[in-house]
Amino acid sequence: MQGVETFLESKSIRVTAMRILIYNFLSDKDVAVTLSDIENAFDKADRTTLYRTIKTFEDKEIVHQIDDGTGVTKYALCEPNCHCDLETDLHLHFHCTECGATICLTDHKIPKIKVPKGFVAEHVNLVVKGTCDKCNCD
Fold first, then answer.
1. Which keywords label this protein (predicted)?
2. Domain assignment of residue 13, given as a range
3. 3 state DSSP class of 59
4. Which of 71, 83, 91, 93 has the most Cβ atoms closer than 10 angstroms to its Cβ?
């Protein structure tokens, strides 16, 4: 656990047991999770504490939000050294229409998108929808 504590401290986050637990929960997932998924995993925890932890992690660039078109925000850990920068850190997300999983495809970067003069891009989200490798094995 020392590694997680050191990492959180390096991001200027006060280390608490719940923050360590949530970080470990997220790091064990290979798919993006909803706030409800986190609540279900920690059913004895205060909902506000869970939400604030996720918002802190997002503000400190530990997690990123994914809008996969389902109407429910999902969260996934950022890659090491990620700054959620439009120029370098954006990647594809894949939403499986069979199982509902949303997966970060971090090896597939979103190319720089040039917007017309006078426009300012602040967020880019590219979601590919289809059938994931697990569901496609039938």
1. DNA-binding, Metal-binding, Repressor, Transcription, Transcription regulation, Zinc
2. 2-136
3. helix
4. 93
> Cα(87)–Cα(90) distance, rounded to whole angstroms?
7
Neighbour tally for 26: CB within 10 Å: 20
Q: Above 90 in pLDDT, residue 42?
A: yes
Rounded to a whole number of angstroms, the CA Rg of the chain reads 16
Residue numbers belonging to the annotated binding site for Zn(2+): 96, 99, 132, 135
Which residues are part of a known binding site?
96, 99, 132, 135
Q: Which CATH number does the domain housing residue 40 bear?
A: 1.10.10.10
Give 66-118 as a DSSP string: E--SSSS-EEEEPPTT----TTTT-EEEEEETTT--EEEEEEEEPPP-PPPTT
Please indicate whether residue 67 or residue 111 has the higher confidence score (pLDDT): 67
β partners of residue 74:
34, 66
CB 77 within 8 A of CB 63: yes
3-state SS, residue 127: strand
Structural domain tally of the chain?
Answer: 1
Q: DSSP assignment of 5-40, as one string?
A: HHHHHHTT----HHHHHHHHHHHT-SS-EEHHHHHH
